[in-house]
Design brief:
This protein is an all-alpha fold. The protein has 3 helices and no strands. The protein has one domain. Helix 2 runs antiparallel to helix 3.
Length: about 70
């Protein structure tokens, strides 16, 4: 099988490995990325103003980890 065919096959195989459709997987990945972006923003704010967002980033990361673990 060519490299291109293997790459294209991944569009079905990988989402199926977590019992999702392509678009369901896309939705989850976009939600996950957005949550990481918000956690990163909270960490950036905390870096400059330590009393703000003291636990926001770590809480979001813990929640993301729990969500990922629950999927497998």
């Amino acid at each position: 099988m060519t490299q291109i065919a293997l790459f294209i096959r991944g569009f079905q195989d990988h989402p199926a490995s977590v019992n999702e459709s392509y678009f369901g997987h896309m939705r989850f990945a976009l939600w996950f990325a957005g949550t990481l972006f918000l956690a990163g923003g909270a960490a950036l704010i905390h870096a400059f103003v330590p009393p703000l967002c003291e636990t926001t980033a770590s809480r979001k990361i813990k929640a993301l980890h729990a969500r990922i673990e629950a999927r497998h």
